[in-house]
Amino acid sequence: MTQDPARQSELKKMELCESCAGIQRNWRRAPGHAELVQRGNRKEERDHGTVTITRYQCDRCGTAWEYENDKTDQRAGWSVVGR
Ligand SMILES: [Zn+2]
After folding, report:
1. Cα–Cα distance between 42 and 6 in angstroms, integer?
2. How many angstroms does the Cα of residue 65 sit away from the middle of ligand 1?
3. Is residue 74 predicted with pLDDT exceeding 90?
């Protein structure tokens, strides 16, 4: 892992597999896809309390995803966090 991280993250965006490319980001309760493997979860503090963020990795293209479960935020949901 000696490559430039900024360059790496640019490449990542282009390397999403079809299934990952189909995930609707930042939208509450949008579904993931069958090849995502759960990697663990953590709690984070928000203004209104604690939310759970679950991390996944795609078995097919290796993209790392996080899903934020926040009942009060329609815009919380899937985001790409790297690889
Ligand atoms: Zn994928």
Report:
1. 25
2. 9
3. yes
39-45 long-range Cβ contacts below 8 angstroms, 24+ apart? 39/64, 44/68
How close is the Cα of 49 to the center of ligand 1, in Å? 31
Residues having C-beta closer than 5 Å to ion ligand 1: 17, 20, 58, 60-61, 63
CA of 44 to the centre of ligand 1 (A): 25
Tokens read off for 57: 């990795």
Predicted pLDDT at 5? 73
- pTM equals 0.80
pLDDT of 19-41, one tens digit each?
999 999 999 999 999 999 999 99
